[in-house]
Amino acid sequence: xxxxxSAETWGNSHQxxxxxxxxxxxxxxxxxxxxxxxxxxxxxxxxYPLIWMVFTSLRTNPELFANPWGLPSGLNxxxxxxxxxxxxxxxxxxxxxxxxxxxxxxxxxxxxxxAYAFSKLKFPGSNTLFYVLLSFYxxxxxxxxxxxxxxxxxxxxxxTYLALIGPYVAFALPFSTLLIRGFMVSIPSELIDAALIDGxxxxxxxxRIVLPLxxxxxxxxxxxxxxxxxxxxxxxLAFIHSGELKTLPIGLMDFVGEFTTNWVAMAAGLTxxxxxxxxxxxxFQPQIxxxxxxxxxxx
Amino acid sequence: MVIFFVAPVFMLVLVFIAYPAGRAVYDSLYRWQGxxxxxxxxxxxxxxxxxxxxxxxxxxxRNLALAAVSVFIxxxxxxxxxxxxxxxRVFGRNLYRTAYFFPVVFPVTVAGVLWSWVYNPRYGLxxxxxxxxxxxQLAKPWLSDSxxxxxxxxxxxxxxxxxxxxxxxxxALESIPQDIYDVAALDGTNLWQLGVHVLVPMLREVITVNxxxxxxxxxxxxxxxxxxxxxxxxxxxxxxxxYMFRQAFLSYDMGYASTIAFFLFLLTLALVVVQIQSMRSxxxxxx
Lengths: 299, 287
Description:
The complex is a heterodimer. By secondary structure, chain A is mainly α. Chain A has helices at residues 7-10, 22-57, 61-66, 78-86, 89-120, 126-135, 141-154, 161-184, 189-197, 202-213, 215-231, 234-239, 248-259, 263-298. In chain B, helix 12 packs antiparallel against helix 13 (254-286).
């Protein structure tokens, strides 16, 4: 199909639509119609699970099992009320908020500090040390998983929030430092020299000049790492066992086991778990995209 | 002063990444069951077991199938979509990008549960849809059939990940100077020629990196499959990571699980090195 799209149709400059009779025009634009239809079908494929989840959460079980493809008959939030009042979803939700927020804050703090040192405080061996740090980006979580379990056990951190916060922060640091450092390098040294002359300390320069100027990079790291920690599954599954400490990804699995055939209630629970992601996605899509592409385009 | 700024990062990385990763290599030389520290040194016994374990061989095949699907379906599909979105006359380009990218950030467990409902034999969307159009004989127990479980799971992976590559390719296409497009347009190049003959060679580096990402991610794949099938039925959708996890936290066979983890790491490393080497040698031939 792409073969039929002539240069005239994709080139931005000097596009000219020929005037002819209806059928000639139709022949000209038919590849576009087919193309747009294909894109639309793919859009449905990508989006339908989300739409279906929300629809299902607004229905009743008899309605659903009579016709799973059907639409909700109205806005009925009973399932949400029921799930919020009778299931442990609010607890999981709170745990996820706590773990993700603290982890993201610490990632931001530590990686921006290191990025500042690596970009603005040139010290002997700073490049070597930076590459050492970066090499840990390529260590998969899987290989650390089992020993980490025993490290956490030894530190009496197993089955606490710290069992997740510690590893989440550590595994996010190499990439976050890389990203923020890349941005800080472009901050002109004159600004820093001027502040030094004015008697500003290195800590003051970091806090008052470099950090505020790095906001775009910090935003990317914040959004990207918040989503990553919110969705993390492997460590949470291995390191958290008490129901009252579980985060949403693992808590949801218990919830699904409990509600087995009550699909509409489960759909409400799943939707609740997804809402923060949707909000972050709508507000910060460019930052998420930058976070995801940074690794691939710079690497 | 410098130490103050870099110390937290290095302390955390040492405690939570460097030490555990090194430790796994050492642990793979021990027979070690349960959550206590009691262990016996067995040398390479775990490695012998790994290479004669038929489940491992199956896992490697399935992991490679995942990698093949990423490299030969997701990446070309993503490139085509990105190209069309970037260059063809499309209405609502940003809407498409937003929609295609969404599955990437969709929480994995939520996605896994939803898709296992889609595949549910009795009430699932797929079977209900097939029955509605009269294709009753095609309605199958997708996730509990040993032959269908992998294709079913692979479709979900394509759904979840293609958007990631679309976004990367769109960003890469934006970075190509407008002159190139203008010249190609003057030459009367169509979209297909533009993609294959102009843009693929120009984006060789991005494609290489994407393939490397796809391969490592495929070898590490865990959560989506673990949520949907747990590696079952029996071991029919078992991957290296799910097998490792089950050996460690369900069978408490820590020594063997460490060996699988180390093997998984070596496999990603080897595949990426081979891939980068082969891309390099292609370049040499060209010039």
